[in-house]
Amino acid sequence: MASEKGNKTTLKFDTEDEVAVALAKYTADLSERFIKEKGSFTVVLSGGSLIETMRYLTQPPYAGSVDWSKWCIFWLDERVVPLDHPDSNYKLAWDGFLSKVSIPQSNIYAINDKKSPEDAADDYEERHQDLVARKILPLSEATGFPKFDLMLLGMGPDGHVASLFPNRTQRFEKKRWVTFIKDSPKPPPPRITYTFPVINSSSEIAMVVTGAEIANAVKDALGNPNSELPAAEVSPEGLLTWFLDKDAASKL
Ligand SMILES: O=C1O[C@H](COP(=O)(O)O)[C@@H](O)[C@H](O)[C@H]1O
Fold it and tell me: Over 80: is that where the pLDDT of 183 sits?
């Protein structure tokens, strides 16, 4: 079932598996469109349950039909731990997705895991500035912030997206591209994250949300016009598509 309002579409599916099937088609279609239009596809990954829900992209027909050589991968947020640590979003994505498709290693932009949270955020932002200077990453004409083709977001039961949490100041950052947090309420505490100005400069955002434990946050973010959840602030320049299973949508 689909409903549309402005640039926001909400898709509801019976099961998580149907969400995964639809997400693979949506992502593959966007890959084809952006590669045709601009020669590359910049994709921002979250951690958490998203990577498992991307599983059908690594299988036929997409594994063979998507032009992986044109993909560039970035992280919406990352835990400041070694890249081979069980808490690393890079490791999660590598094990569940990146190791199964042929994206060039030079197109995979992981954080520098040898730095402190402050320095890792500065470093990630500087590397983005370099990509902008080399015309690999465009800036939004409307906002002046980097503009990614597709961001794939998850949401926590507290309504957080990326590492932008309720009751933390990072969600209000308006100047930085990448910021850091040392006291994330969800472990591990040290993280870096894109800021809302970057998130909302995207061409396309998919909010991929499944499971009953998230139903209250979905109801607030989607059903309450005065919601104060970080997830309610997701509002891209382009299109926003919510992918929900029946459990996540049960309180709408
Ligand atoms: O800690 C994080 O949590 C969010 C949500 O994860 P989920 O398992 O509830 O989908 C995730 O999007 C973020 O990237 C991650 O660092």
Answer: yes
